[in-house]
Amino acid sequence: MASIEKRTAKDGTISYRVKIRIKGFPAQTATFTKLSLAKDWVARTETKIKDGKYLSEIQARKHFVWEIIERYKNTVLIHKKAIVKDWTSQLNWWNDKIGQYALADVTPALISQMRDILSQENGAKGKPRSNATVNRYLTTMQCVFSVAVKEWELLDVNPFFRVKKLQEPRGRVRYLSKEERESLLAECQKASNPYLYPAVIVALSTGARKMEVMSLRWEDVDLANERAILQDTKNGERRTINLLGVVNQLMQDLYNKRRKSDIYVFPSHDGKKPFDITRSWKAAVKRAGIKDFRFHDLRHTTASYLAMQGKSMGEVAEVLGHKTLQMVKRYAHLSDEHKKSLTADMNKAIFGE
Question: Domain with 324 in it: what CATH number?
Fold first, then answer.
């Protein structure tokens, strides 16, 4: 299976030429300065060949990080419209740092080094990146390597799975009180922008993200069945939202007033893209006297209201479109308060005041 040939150069230097032949595999050769190194290589290589791992290792030596980044952009990321901008920026960073590395040379030690560089560098806004941002960079590249392992079979294992991510602070939970909600909706309704109020109502009643709401197209809205399909979601998958009651009425009014050329439910002046409500939104929040509240917090508000109504974390995740319960655990304490009140009512019924 393996042969080791001792060679002596003209200057007296000794080397050991190794050749491994296994049926069904191309011959593998290597040269070493010590016999012990040659024997070690033979043992390791034969084991990998028998385990079916050696060809993958050869592949990992032949291909480079920049190759899989470009391939991922062109075949996978292109279909994830909601994240293509952010992920492209992150992948460009990785390409700049380790693009010339062979896949086999991307080790957990190298990734850890890159993680530390990410956390020490300033981001696009000139401020140090948060731990959450650093982790998103790691997740993006982890996804690329996962596809390279599972679908393209360019290497056996994903080295990113062995790298610990940075600890993040507990997720922000800022939701509107009853008074804040009434004040904000009143100011949105007064706004000169005709799309602000209905957009906020859609976001608040469905838990949809700002991008998902503003990119809604009329072709995806089914007013008769009180629903709409979100095509451009963050995770790249379609999701259905329900347009019930006042939301459906507002959408019906917009439909009746729309221009025939309008593609979007909330179109810009030229109708070629969604309307940008940022300025009118900020003005309405300021007029309402609400502090520390972003459009995305409408989504937190929806989730918080669901939790306080006693909905399970699984039901909250389903409404928000999360694949796992991890992202909705931040609302668990609100659900716990509801359970506490139920338990209190039960105890009163059994034991009295």
Answer: 1.10.443.10
